[in-house]
Amino acid sequence: MVSTEFLITSLILVLIPGTGVIYTLSTGLFQGVRASFAAALGCTLGIVPSMLASIFGLAVILNTSALAFQIVKFAGVAYLLYLAWCMWTETGGLTLGKKEAQNINLFQVALKGCLINVLNPKLTLFFLAFLPQFIVTNIGSTVGQMLLIGGIFMGMTLVVFILYGVLASKARQYLIGSSNVAKYLQRAFAASFALLAAKLALTER
Question: pTM (2 decimals)?
Answer without folding.
Answer: 0.78
